[in-house]
UniProtKB/TrEMBL annotation:
PANTHER family: ANK_REP_REGION DOMAIN-CONTAINING PROTEIN, ANKYRIN AND ARMADILLO REPEAT-CONTAINING PROTEIN. The gene is LOC111111666. Residues 1352-1451 are annotated as: Disordered. It comes from the Eukaryota. GO terms for molecular function: cadherin binding. InterPro entries: ANKAR, Ankyrin_rpt, Ankyrin_rpt-contain_sf, ARM-like, ARM-type_fold, Armadillo, Beta-catenin. ANK repeats lie at residues 541-573, 647-679. Residues 1360-1369, 1392-1412 have a biased composition (Polar residues). Gene3D superfamilies: Ankyrin repeat-containing domain, Leucine-rich Repeat Variant. ARM repeats lie at residues 751-793, 792-834, 833-875. Residues 1370-1385 have a biased composition (Low complexity). GO terms for biological process: cell adhesion. This is Ankyrin and armadillo repeat-containing protein-like isoform X4.
C-alpha cells in the first residue's frame, strides 16, 4: 500500500473521524519526510508549490486556460473513464507490454504533483561549476518513477549527442568519487592536479557510444569535419565558441486526442529541437544559421537513433503516456475530479523510483566515433538540456466510428481487466493491461476511477496533505536562512563565484537563471526589498530578471515576479522602449514553459521589437515548432503577421530564410500562405535558396505543391540579373543534384541544362566552377548528355579546359568524357580541338585533374581510330607511360583504362606503347598492388595491347604476364576473374601452340573453375581454353575428364537454356574433346560424356534447338561423341528423337554456313563408319549440288571443307560416281597446299591427314596428286603450324607403301629432312614404325655416295609411264598389305603434341573469336580418330552394290 493511501480506509476497514484524521496526518508526515533532507529540498518544494501559474492558489492574477484538453475536457457526471493508449509495434514484437502497476504508479505520482504539490513533470540538466551535471527535476518528482524515467531518457539523449556514456550502475559509483579522485577544487571547480583523465573515465566504465551495439551505426550518416579543410576548421571553431549556450530539448506533445463520452484516445509524439540561449548581442542571425545548420544534423541523428535501444524506447513510451496524463489530470482537477488512488496497485519498489541528483561528467577520446563536438584536449565536460511537456493540445476530435460502435465493449473490457488485476492477493511481476483492436491498430485500454475533489477539503487525504504542507511545513522551514542558501550557491557555482553573487543584483539573477525558486523569492524580499525599481532593474546586457527567467525557461520565477506586479511586457534596454519583451526572448530561446506562462498571463503577442519582429517571428526564425503551435492555438491570424520593417516578412518566410525546417513544416500544416512574397519579391523557395538551406528545399520538393515549384524557381534564379541569386541557386542545385537519385530528371525537365551551360560561358569563375559541378553530378544520364549536346556545350567546355582554375579543368574533363559517349560527339569534340588541350592538362600536378583528364581521353578514344591516332600524335602516350609509375592507385587505374581505349584495335598505338615501355609497368602494378580495381584496369590494358599484336604478346609472355594475371583468377569477385581470364586469352594469340601454352599456364583447375561460374565471359574463356588444351591432345583431354569439367559442361547444357551463346560454346567443347589428331577418337572422354547423360540432352537440343546454329553444332558434337565408339552409337540409336532426317534438312538451310556445317556433321557420322553411311543413304542420301557452291567458292576454307566432305561422303552422294568424287576432293585439297595463306595450308594438310587413314586408294590418290612433294616442301615453312600439319600428313602417308618409298627417298636425298619430320610431327600423330625402322637401318648401314640419287645414281623407283599414279593391277597380296597398312594406324592415346596441327584463326583475324562465327572457319575443324575395319567386312575395293548387301546383312 502506498504512503499516499496509508490513511485512507480500505474496503471492510471501520474507523471514526478522529482516527481517520490522525491516520491521514501520519501518512502526510511520512510522505513529506522524504523531502526533509536536506532542508533546502523542502524549501524548494514549498517555493514551487506557491508559484505555479496554472495550479497554485497563491497566484491570483487572471490568466487564460490552456487550450485543447485542459480547457475542453468535459467529464459530465461520470466518475470513470477509459484511456486508450496505442501499442508500440516494436515493443510488442519484442514482447514488451504495458504494466498496470507501472500505470498506477505514474498516475499516483502525477496526482501527488498536480493535486497536492502544484507541480508538473519536466527535467533540465544544468551545469555545475566543476563540470558535474545537476538533474533539475521539480522537487515533487524527486525519487519518483517519472523522475527516474526523465533522467534516464534525457541522459541517454545527451550521451548519444556527445558520443559517450556511463551505464547507470557504474555512473552512480563514479559520481560518488570522481571529485575526490581528481582532486577538484571547491573554489573554481578545476582539478588541482593535472593528469590524463581519459584512462580513469574508461576504467570506471565510460563507454564510447559508437561501440554500443544499439547505437554503433548512429554516426554513420553524419558529415564529420575534414581536418585539412580550413573552412571546416573555421566552422568548427565557430560552433565550439557557442557550445556552452547550446542544448538539445525534447518536447512531448499530443498529435491528436479523440474523445467519446468516457473514452479518451491519445496519440502522443516527441520532437527534438536545439536551443541556442544567446541574444543578438552575442550571436547575429547569420552566425545562428551557421550553428543551426550543424545542429539540425545532430537533431536528425537523435530522432532516428534514440529509440533503437529497446529500454529507452519503452521508457519513452511511458513518458508519452505521462505527457497525455499531465494535461488530462490538470483538466480533471479544474473539473473537480481526482483519481481514486485507493483502488490502485501497490507502489513500485524504491529502486524503481530512486532518482539521481547529479550526473558525472563525460570525456571523448580521439578514437571515439562521434565527432559532434571537439572539446579541449584532456578536458571533461557536463551535459545540459531537458525534457518538457506541452500542456496545450489541439481541440478534441471524434474517434473512429469503430470506437463508437464498440463503446460498451471497450468499457466492459477495460473494467474487467482493471478488476482482475486489483483483485489479485499476491504481488505479481507483471500486471497485464487488456488490449483491443481498432481500425487494425492495437490499443491498451486503461480503466480509471475518480472521486470528487474540493481543494483543500476533499477527499480527506488532500486536506491532511495540504494542511501539512501549507501550515506546518511552511512554518517550520520558512523563511530561508542565509547559510544554507549560500551552501546551495557554492554547490552550483563554487566558492569563488558565490562570493561575487552577494552583490545586490547578481544573486537574484543567478537564482533566476538556475531556477532556484525559493532562493530567488528569499533574495528578492531580503536584497531587493520587493521594490519595483529593483525588481525591474536591468543588467549590463539590458536584461531584467523577467528576461533571464524567460530565456532560461523558469516559469516559477516569472510567476514570482508577476505576483510582485512586474510588467509582463517590460522590454530589454527599456530606455528606448523598443527592445524585446520577455515573450520575444522566450520565443527566441525555445522556452516553452516560460512562453506558455507569459501567453496565459496576457503577454503581448503582437508587440514588436527594435527589428520590427513580433514573438511569432522569433519562434519561426529560430525554429521552435512548439512555441509556434502555442501561439497559433491562442491567436491563429498570428501566423500571417508581417514584420514591421522594410522586408515585410511573414513567419513562414522567416523560417524558410533561416532554414528552420520544423517551423516551415509546422506553419504549412497550420495553413500559412505559401505563396506570400516579401517586399523584395522573394518567396519561400527564393529565400531558402538565397540562404542556402537545402533542407527546406528538399522538403518542399518532396511535398511537391504546385505553388512551390522549387526546380522552376531555382532555374529561373540561374538567369536572374542579380549575381547573388545566380550564385545561391547554382550552389543549391549542386547539393540537390546529389541528394536523391531522381533529382537529375527534375533539373532537366525544368530547363536547367541550357541555363547551366550559359553560366559556363560567364566571366565569373565561381559560377563556372559550381555550374560545372552541377553538370558533373547529373551528366552520367543519357538524357542530360543529349541536352548538353543540344545546348552546344562542347565548344564552351573545350575553351574552359584552358581555365587557370583547377576545379574547372577537372570538372570540365568529366563533362567532356560524359558527352563524348553520345553518338557523334567523339568526332565533334575532336573537330572542335578538344584533344590538344586535354593532352596539355596531362602536365598538371593535381591528381584529380590528371585522373579526370585521362578518363576523358579514354572515352574519346573508345572505338575511334582517328582520336586514338590524335592522342598519340599530340604526345599523349609519353604521359600515360609516366602515369603508370606515379604513386597514385586511382591514377594508375585510370591510365590503364585509357591505355586499353587508345590501343584497342590500333596496331600503331600498340607498337608505340610497346616502344615507350608501357607493358612492363602494367605487369608490375598487378604484381605489386592489392587494389582489385587497379588490377582489373591493368588486365584490360593488357588485353587491348595483346589483341592481334604478336610483338606485344611475346613481350607480355617474356615478362611473365600470365603469372600475374592468374592472380586475378583466384579472386572471389567474379567480375575480377572475368577480366583476368579475358586478358589471359588475349595473350593466347592466333596460333594453336601459343593458345595451348596459355591454357597450360592457366592450369586445368583454373579452367575448370571458370566452367563452374555462371557468367558468359568466364564460360567463354573456359571453353576456349578447354579447346586449346584438349584439341587433338588425348592426354589433356583425359586430364580434363578426370576433373569435374564434363559434369559442369553437361550441367550448363541443362541450366542455361536461355543463353544460346553459352549452349553453343559448351556443345563445341564437348565435340572437340572427343577427337584427337586426324579424327582419332578418345574413348575416355566419349565414355565420360555419355555417363554424364549428355547424349539425351543433345538430342533434345537437336530436335528443339534455339537456333539453326545450335542445331548444327549439336549434330557435329554428337558425331564426335559417337565417332568410332560402338557403345555410344548404340546409346544414340536408342534415343527415339534421333535420325538423320534432321541433318539432311539442315542441308537445305538458307544459310551457307549452316549448310556447310551440316555437311561436316554428316561427314563425321560417316567417317570410317559404313553403317552410318548406309543409314544416311537410306534416309535419302545427298545431292552433289549441295557441295557445288562451296567447291566453286572463292573462300579457300569452304573449298577445303567441301572437298573433304565429298571424299568421306562419296558413297552417299547419290548423283555422282564415288571414285570421281574421291579423286576430285583429294585433288582440290592437294591443290590448296599451294595456297599463299598459311592457315589454308594447315587446314588442307590436316584434312589430308584424316583422309589418309580412311579408305584404301585415297593415299594413292594423294601420291598421284603430288601431295608428298608439296608436303615435304612445306616442312621448311617459317610457320610452325604449317610444318606441324604437313608433318602429320606425311606421317599418316607412311602407312602407304608407295608414299613411304617416295618419302624415304626424299629423306635419303635431303639431308635433315627426316629430322624436320621428326621434330614437327608431334606425339599425337602417327607414323609407320616400319618406315621409321627402315630409315634408322639406312642411317646405321650407310649408303655409297654414288648410290644417292642426288649424285646421279639410279632412282629408287624406276621411271615408268605411269609413274605419276600408283598401279591399279596389284596382286591380292599387295592389296592385302595395303589394307593391312591402312588398318595399322590405330590412334595413339595419352601422348602430347607440342605443336598441334590445326589452326583456329580466321582469315581476317589472327585471334579466334570467342563467339561462334556465322561462317565456317578452321577453328571449327574436328579430326575423328580412325577405326579399323570390322571383322567380316569386305575389302575396300568391293563394288558398291556388294557393299550395300553387306550393310543390310550386318544391320
Amino acid at each position: 500500500m502506498s504512503t499516499l493511501n496509508a490513511g485512507t480506509p480500505q474496503p471492510g476497514e471501520q474507523m471514526d473521524e478522529s482516527q481517520l484524521q490522525a491516520k491521514l496526518e501520519r501518512a502526510a508526515s511520512t510522505y513529506f519526510e522524504k523531502f526533509s533532507t536536506p532542508a533546502f529540498r523542502m524549501q524548494e518544494l514549498i517555493g514551487h508549490h506557491k508559484n505555479h501559474w496554472l495550479l497554485s492558489d497563491d497566484f491570483k492574477m487572471a490568466y487564460d486556460q490552456p487550450v485543447g484538453l485542459i480547457k475542453g475536457l468535459n467529464p459530465l457526471n461520470s466518475n470513470v473513464c477509459v484511456l486508450m493508449v496505442p501499442e508500440d509495434p516494436v515493443l510488442a514484437e519484442n514482447k514488451i507490454g504495458l504494466d498496470y502497476r507501472e500505470v498506477h504508479q505514474v498516475i499516483r505520482e502525477l496526482t501527488n504533483g498536480i493535486y497536492v504539490l502544484n507541480q508538473t513533470p519536466s527535467i533540465s540538466l544544468e551545469a555545475l561549476y566543476d563540470q558535474g551535471t545537476w538533474c533539475n527535476l521539480p522537487p515533487g518528482f524527486n525519487d519518483t518513477h517519472i523522475g527516474q524515467l526523465l533522467i534516464s531518457v534525457d541522459y541517454m539523449m545527451k550521451s548519444l549527442w556527445h558520443g559517450a556514456y556511463f551505464p547507470k550502475e557504474k555512473r552512480t559509483k563514479f559520481n560518488d568519487k570522481w571529485r575526490e579522485h581528481f582532486q577538484v577544487s571547491k573554489q573554481n571547480g578545476k582539478p588541482e592536479k593535472e593528469k590524463s583523465f581519459l584512462s580513469d573515465f574508461l576504467s570506471h566504465g565510460m563507454v564510447d557510444m559508437g561501440k554500443d551495439p544499439d547505437y554503433c551505426d548512429a554516426y554513420n550518416d553524419l558529415q564529420f569535419d575534414n581536418d585539412d579543410d580550413p573552412d571546416m576548421t573555421k566552422e568548427r571553431i565557430h560552433f565550439m565558441k557557442h557550445v556552452e549556450d547550446i542544448c538539445m530539448q525534447m518536447t512531448l506533445y499530443q498529435k491528436k486526442i479523440m474523445h467519446e463520452k468516457d473514452i479518451y484516445m491519445m496519440e502522443s509524439d516527441l520532437m527534438i529541437s536545439s536551443i541556442v540561449r544567446l541574444l543578438d548581442d552575442r550571436i547575429n542571425h547569420n552566425d545562428y544559421e551557421r550553428v543551426n545548420t550543424r545542429l539540425q544534423m545532430h537533431e536528425n541523428m537523435l530522432r532516428e537513433n534514440l529509440t533503437k535501444k529497446l529500454d529507452i524506447r519503452r521508457q519513452l513510451f511511458i513518458l508519452k503516456f505521462v505527457s497525455f496524463l499531465t494535461p488530462f489530470l490538470i483538466g480533471m482537477r479544474k473539473r473537480m475530479k481526482i483519481p481514486d488512488t485507493t483502488r490502485f496497485l501497490p507502489d513500485l519498489s524504491e529502486d524503481q523510483c530512486k532518482t539521481e541528483e547529479e550526473l558525472p561528467p563525460l570525456m571523448l577520446g580521439d578514437d571515439f566515433k562521434c565527432k559532434n563536438f571537439y572539446p579541449e584536449k584532456n578536458k571533461y565536460f557536463h551535459l545540459h538540456g531537458g525534457i518538457n511537456i506541452d500542456f496545450e493540445t489541439d481541440e478534441l476530435e471524434s474517434p473512429p466510428k469503430e470506437v463508437i460502435h464498440k463503446y460498451s465493449e471497450i468499457m466492459t473490457l477495460a473494467e474487467q481487466g482493471f478488476l482482475k488485476v486489483i483483485s489479485m492477493e499476491t504481488i505479481k511481476e507483471h500486471y497485464e493491461v487488456p488490449k483491443i483492436t481498432v481500425d487494425g491498430k492495437e490499443y491498451y485500454v486503461i480503466f480509471l476511477e475518480f472521486e470528487t475533489f474540493f481543494n483543500p477539503q476533499q477527499p480527506a487525504w488532500i486536506k491532511a496533505f495540504s494542511t501539512k504542507l501549507t501550515i506546518d511545513l511552511e512554518r517550520k522551514y520558512l523563511p530561508l536562512q542565509d547559510t544554507p542558501m549560500w551552501d546551495v550557491f557554492i554547490k552550483h557555482f563554487g566558492k569563488k563565484k558565490t562570493g561575487k553573487l552577494k552583490a545586490q543584483m547578481t544573486g537574484p539573477r543567478a537564482a533566476a537563471i538556475r531556477g532556484l525558486v525559493i532562493i530567488f523569492v528569499h533574495m528578492c524580499r531580503k536584497t531587493l526589498g520587493q521594490q519595483m525599481s529593483r525588481l525591474t532593474k536591468q543588467d549590463e546586457h539590458g536584461l531584467s530578471l523577467l528576461h533571464h527567467a524567460a530565456m532560461n525557461n523558469r516559469p516559477q520565477i516569472i510567476v514570482s515576479l508577476l505576483r510582485q506586479t512586474v510588467d509582463i511586457n517590460s522590454r530589454r534596454n527599456n530606455i528606448l522602449s523598443t527592445g524585446p519583451t520577455g515573450l520575444h526572448i522566450a520565443a527566441r530561446c525555445g522556452a516553452l514553459d516560460a512562453a506558455a506562462c507569459l501567453l496565459a498571463c496576457c503577454a503581448g503577442q503582437t508587440l514588436y521589437d527594435q527589428d520590427g519582429w513580433a514573438p511569432i517571428h522569433h519562434a519561426a526564425f529560430f525554429d521552435h515548432e512548439a512555441i509556434i503551435k502555442l501561439m497559433a492555438r491562442r491567436n491563429s491570424p498570428v501566423i500571417e503577421l508581417l514584420t514591421r520593417n522594410d522586408i515585410r516578412s511573414t513567419p513562414l518566410l522567416l523560417a524558410a530564410s533561416s532554414g528552420g525546417l520544423s517551423a516551415v513544416k509546422c506553419l504549412i500544416r497550420l495553413g500559412a500562405d505559401i505563396s506570400r512574397l516579401d517586399a523584395e519579391g522573394n518567396g519561400m523557395v527564393n529565400l531558402a535558396a538565397m540562404r542556402f538551406h537545402t533542407n527546406v528545399l528538399e522538403y518542399l520538393i518532396e511535398w511537391s505543391h504546385e505553388k512551390a515549384p522549387v526546380w522552376k524557381i531555382l532555374v529561373k534564379m540561374l538567369t536572374d540579373v542579380d549575381l547573388g541569386k545566380k550564385d545561391s541557386a547554382v550552389k543549391c542545385l549542386e547539393v540537390l543534384s546529389t541528394s536523391k537519385p531522381e533529382h537529375w530528371k527534375s533539373i532537366l525537365e525544368a530547363g536547367g541544362i541550357p541555363a547551366l551551360v550559359t553560366l559556363l560561358s560567364s566571366e565569373n569563375e565561381v559560377l563556372q566552377s559550381v555550374a560545372a559541378s552541377v553538370i558533373v553530378n547529373i551528366s552520367e544520364h543519357a538524357s542530360v548528355r543529349q541536352a548538353l549536346t543540344k545546348a552546344k556545350a562542347a565548344p564552351i567546355l573545350i575553351q574552359l579546359l584552358n581555365s587557370p582554375d583547377d576545379n574547372i579543368q577537372s570538372r570540365v574533363a568529366i563533362i567532356l568524357s560524359d558527352i563524348a559517349s553520345v553518338e557523334g560527339n567523339q568526332s565533334l569534340i575532336a573537330e572542335e580541338g578538344g584533344i590538344p588541350p586535354l593532352i596539355n592538362l596531362m602536365d598538371s600536378e593535381l591528381e584529380e585533374v590528371l585522373i579526370n583528364t585521362v578518363n576523358a581521353v579514354r572515352v574519346l578514344c573508345a572505338g575511334n581510330p582517328a582520336n586514338q591516332d590524335a592522342v598519340a600524335e599530340h604526345g599523349g602516350i609519353a604521359f600515360l607511360r609516366e602515369f603508370l609509375t606515379l604513386d597514385s592507385e586511382k591514377l594508375k587505374a585510370a591510365t590503364a583504362a585509357c591505355i586499353a581505349a587508345i590501343s584497342a584495335g590500333n596496331k600503331n598505338n600498340q607498337d608505340a606503347l610497346l616502344e615507350a615501355g608501357a607493358l612492363e609497368p602494367l605487369v608490375e602494378i598487378i604484381n605489386g598492388t592489392a587494389n582489385e580495381t587497379v588490377r582489373v584496369k591493368c588486365a584490360n590494358a593488357i588485353e587491348a595491347l595483346a589483341q592481334d599484336n604478336l610483338a606485344c604478346q611475346q613481350t607480355f609472355l617474356r615478362i611473365k604476364a600470365p603469372t600475374a594475371l592468374k592472380k586475378l583468377l583466384k579472386n572471389f569477385n567474379v567480375s575480377v576473374k572475368e577480366h583476368g581470364a579475358k586478358a589471359l586469352w588475349a595473350l593466347a594469340g592466333s596460333t594453336t601452340s601459343q593458345q595451348k601454352y596459355i591454357a597450360e599456364k592457366t592450369s586445368i583447375p583454373d579452367i575448370c573453375s571458370m566452367l563452374l561460374e555462371d557468367t558468359e565471359k568466364l564460360l567463354q574463356v573456359g571453353c576456349m581454353m578447354s579447346i586449346a588444351l584438349g584439341r587433338e591432345n588425348i592426354e589433356n583431354q583425359i586430364k580434363l575428364a578426370q576433373t569435374e569439367a564434363f559434369n559442369q559442361l553437361v550441367r550448363l547444357l541443362r541450366t542455361h537454356k536461355d543463353s544460346p551463346q553459352v549452349i553453343l560454346m559448351v556443345i563445341q567443347v564437348l565435340g572437340i574433346l572427343c577427337v584427337g589428331v586426324a579424327y582419332c577418337n578418345n574413348k575416355v572422354t566419349q565414355r565420360k560424356i555419355a555417363e554424364e547423360g549428355a547424349i539425351p540432352t543433345l538430342v533434345t537440343y537437336l530436335n528443339q534447338p534455339p537456333s539453326e546454329e545450335v542445331q548444327v553444332e549439336v549434330a557435329i558434337a554428337l558425331g564426335c561423341i559417337v565417332l568410332s565408339n560402338t557403345r555410344n552409337q548404340e546409346l544414340l540409336q536408342e534415343e527415339p528423337g534421333f535420325n538423320f532426317d534432321v541433318l539432311l534438312d539442315l542441308l537445305k538451310s538458307k544459310s551457307e554456313a549452316i549448310r556447310l556445317r551440316a555437311g561436316m556433321a554428316l561427314t563425321i557420322f560417316a567417317f570410317n563408319n559404313t553403317p552410318q553411311q548406309y543409314a544416311i543413304r537410306e534416309a535419302g542420301g545427298i545431292m552433289y549440288s549441295v557441295f557445288e557452291p562451296f567447291l566453286n567458292s572463292s573462300i579457300e576454307y569452304d573449298v577445303c571443307y567441301a572437298a573433304f566432305q565429298i571424299v568421306v561422303l562419296a558413297r552417299v552422294i547419290v548423283d555422282q560416281d564415288q571414285v570421281m568424287l574421291t579423286a576430285s576432293g583429294v585433288t582440290l585439297l592437294v591443290k590448296k597446299l599451294h595456297s599463299t595463306e598459311d592457315n589454308v595450308i594447315v587446314l588442307a594438310a590436316s584434312l589430308l591427314s584424316s583422309l589418309a587413314h580412311t579408305r584404301a586408294g585415297i593415299p594413292d590418290a594423294m601420291v598421284t596428286s603430288g601431295a608428298i612433294d608439296v608436303l615435304v616442301d612445306k616442312l621448311s615453312s617459317q610457320n610452325d603450324q604449317v610444318r606441324g600439319a604437313c608433318a602429320v600428313a606425311l606421317g599418316y602417308l607412311t602407312f602407304n607403301r608407295t608414299a613411304a618409298r617416295i618419302l624415304f627417298s626424299a629423306c635419303r636425298n635431303t639431308p635433315g629432312l627426316y629430322k624436320k619430320l621428326e621434330e614437327n610431327i608431334g606425339k599425337n600423330a602417327k607414323i609407320s614404325q616400319e618406315f621409321v625402322q627402315d630409315f634408322k637401318r639406312a642411317k646405321i648401314v650407310g649408303l655409297p655416295s654414288q648410290c644417292l640419287e642426288i649424285n646421279g645414281g639410279p632412282p629408287v623407283i624406276p621411271p615408268s609411264r605411269n609413274s605419276m599414279r600408283p598401279m591399279t593391277g596389284t596382286s591380292r597380296a599387295t592389296t592385302a598389305r595395303a589394307v593391312s597398312r591402312a588398318k595399322s594406324a590405330p590412334g595413339k592415346r595419352g601422348q602430347r603434341s607440342p605443336n598441334p596441327s590445326i589452326v583456329v584463326s580466321t582469315p581476317n583475324s589472327s585471334r579466334p573469336s570467342t563467339a561462334s562465327p556465322l561462317r565456317i572457319h578452321p577453328s571449327s575443324l574436328f579430326r575423328p580418330a580412325s577405326s579399323p575395319l570390322r571383322k567380316g567386312a569386305r575389302s575396300p575395293d568391293a563394288t558398291f552394290k556388294t557393299r550395300l548387301s553387306s550393310w543390310k546383312e550386318e544391320i
